[in-house]
Automatic annotation (TrEMBL):
SUPFAM superfamilies registered for this protein in UniProt: all-alpha NTP pyrophosphatases
Organism, as annotated: Carboxydothermus hydrogenoformans (strain ATCC BAA-161 / DSM 6008 / Z-2901)
Domain of life: Bacteria
Protein name as catalogued: DUF1573 domain-containing protein
Length: 131
């Protein structure tokens, strides 16, 4: 059984994608959308200030376990998104999803199947799947 929400989203993208229908446009717009998510996140730090980045090289003991590594590595983020930045980033993530879904449509890939395969991979790898 397919997920109705995701299938509906994929069908809507298929209906609305007219102007940038070429695979070349889809690939370049997907890249652009990714960069815009990146930029909106950076602006939350550099223009709004609701987020701060506090990064340094982690000190990793030679005998550290995988569970300890999870505690040692952090996001380097301090603070939390204000409603305005959150809204902007969500909109940019939506565009990213739109073009990822458009790529799925062009390649005859079901977006729900992508979610399921990735979830199964994560379930199998569990804690050992740290990237
Ligand atoms: Zn903000």
């Amino acid at each position: 059984m397919k997920d109705l929400l995701i299938d509906h989203f994929q069908e809507t993208v298929n209906e609305l994608l007219i102007r940038h229908k070429s695979i070349l446009d889809v690939l370049s717009k997907l890249n652009e959308a990714s960069a815009r998510v990146h930029r909106a996140t950076v602006k939350a730090v550099t223009q709004c200030g609701c987020l701060k980045i506090d990064a340094k090289k982690p000190i990793i003991p030679e005998d550290a376990t995988i569970l300890q590594l999870k505690e040692i590595f952090d996001t380097h983020l301090k603070g939390e998104l204000c409603p305005n930045c959150k809204d902007t980033i969500e909109k940019e993530m939506g565009r990213l999803l739109f073009y990822l879904t458009a790529l799925c449509n062009h390649l005859d890939i079901n977006l729900y199947d992508v979610f399921i395969k990735e979830q199964k991979a994560l379930d199998t790898l569990n804690i050992f799947n740290f990237t």
